[in-house]
Specification:
alpha/beta; 7-stranded parallel beta sheet; 44% helix
């Protein structure tokens, strides 16, 4: 049965930024596919809610409240997974982000902070997990962004970091082949708390949707389903790729309105 290729029965995953949004949806989706999960983010109460959803799916979740802007904290999740569950099959580097900021207000320190939060943490966890992933023949899925490949004012830090994460994916895939697959998802506009100001404003939402070829904002489950595909045997012949799950975007679908200099 083709659907059997999407199953992750008995596998163990680490999902960062798992307290809400894409991370939470991904943790639950992986559990529904049969995996146990280590879930980490800053807010323990949010993680507890996700853990309850994982349990409702019949799997186990180990909660790790942590400041994942620290590469060391991210790296520690690999050994936590092995200690709690005895193995590690999948890493989902979802934590990241950076606020939009005009170019001349984007300091070198802000750019470096964006790089550390989006790229250095992903590398730290991937490198720490690699020995276990090599044993299990596992995989890594990095959450990049459409802003890593299209141009829009105000996204110099965020877009640069996500572009770096996308190419890091290709490079890490080459280093870890053939035993470990590494892929990424370039995420478009998804209805999470980060887009709350848009989703809750009918005028802004309509403007964003009309500029998206599929005429809608994505759902966190759209990304979670793609993670399941990439992590499972369904994606067994895919590595070093960045899948664009963005509603068909070829340009930003909401400009920030920053003026000419």
């Amino acid at each position: 049965m083709i659907l059997d290729r999407f199953k992750l029965t008995g596998q163990v995953a680490v999902v960062t930024g798992a307290g809400r949004g894409i991370g939470a949806a991904t943790a639950v989706a992986l559990a529904e596919a049969g995996a146990d999960v280590v879930i980490a983010s800053r807010t323990e109460s949010q993680l507890a809610e996700v853990a309850a959803r994982v349990a409702a799916a019949g799997r186990r979740a180990h909660v790790v409240p942590a400041d994942l802007s620290s590469p060391d904290a991210a790296a520690a999740l690999a050994s936590t997974a092995v200690a709690e569950f005895g193995r590690l099959d999948l890493v989902v580097n979802n934590v990241g982000g950076a606020y939009p900021r005009p170019l001349l207000e984007t300091t070198a320190e802000f750019l470096e902070e964006a790089f550390r939060f989006n790229v250095s943490t992903a590398h730290a966890l991937t490198a720490a997990a690699a020995p276990s992933l090599l044993e299990t023949g596992g995989s890594v899925v990095n959450i990049s962004s459409v802003m890593g490949r299209v141009s829009g004012r105000g996204f110099a830090a965020y877009g640069t970091a996500k572009a770096a994460l996308a190419h890091y994916t290709r490079l890490a895939a080459a280093d870890l082949a053939p035993r470990v697959r590494v892929n990424a998802i370039a995420v478009g506009s998804v209805a999470t708390s980060a887009l709350e100001i848009v989703v809750g404003n009918p005028e802004l939402r309509e403007k964003m949707e009309s500029a998206t070829p599929l005429r809608k904002i994505g759902e966190a489950e759209d990304i979670a389903a793609t993670v399941v595909f990439l992590a499972s045997r369904a994606g067994a012949y895919v590595t070093g790729k960045v899948l664009e799950v963005d509603g068909g975007l070829q340009a930003p679908n909401l400009e920030l309105g920053l003026p000419d200099l």
